[in-house]
Design a protein that fits this description.
The chain is 38% helix and 23% strand. The protein is α+β, with helices and mostly antiparallel strands. The longest helix is centred in the middle third of the chain and has 22 residues, at 59-80.
Length: 145
């Protein structure tokens, strides 16, 4: 069994991030996919980087839930020999939470209502996650405590 990997330093609160371009990418999902209630970009450490939530859901809580989902998915991938975490979706009675890997440093959490077209979300969200990963690539982690 390979040893667990350590988490990368947090990007939360980093002033060097291109927040306007990140916000534009998050907004695209809201426009492209009817039923998207909001998105959170969070670190794999569970800290929120930014969001566009339009509900009363606390985006910091959602970033933590995304990291928890990532942790479970990562363990499944390790135990089954299926590789790195890519995506996970939780369906509830009134909606969905989908979490996508954004490179190795971050996660894209998308909250959708019960009418969202999940297949359409799964077609568009990975490309958005790739663009977000490119925006985050090369940004020096924030070392403030």
């Amino acid at each position: 069994m390979p040893p667990p990997r350590s988490l990368p330093p947090s990007l939360a609160g980093n002033p060097a991030l291109p927040y306007p371009r990140i916000g534009q990418a998050l907004a695209e999902l809201r426009v492209q996919i009817p039923g998207v209630l909001g998105c959170v970009l969070g670190g794999v450490d569970g800290l929120m980087i930014t969001h566009n939530m339009q509900t009363d859901v606390d985006p910091s809580d959602l970033a933590a839930l995304a990291a928890t989902t990532y942790g479970l998915g990562r363990q499944v991938g390790l135990r089954l020999g299926q590789g790195d975490f890519q995506q996970s979706t939780v369906r509830n009675a009134l909606g969905y939470l989908s979490v996508y890997a954004v490179g190795t440093q971050a996660l894209l959490a998308v909250v959708g209502g019960d009418t969202i077209n999940v297949a359409r979300l799964h077609l568009h969200a990975p490309a958005v996650a790739e663009r977000l990963a490119a925006l985050l690539h090369g940004v020096t982690p924030n070392h403030r405590q």
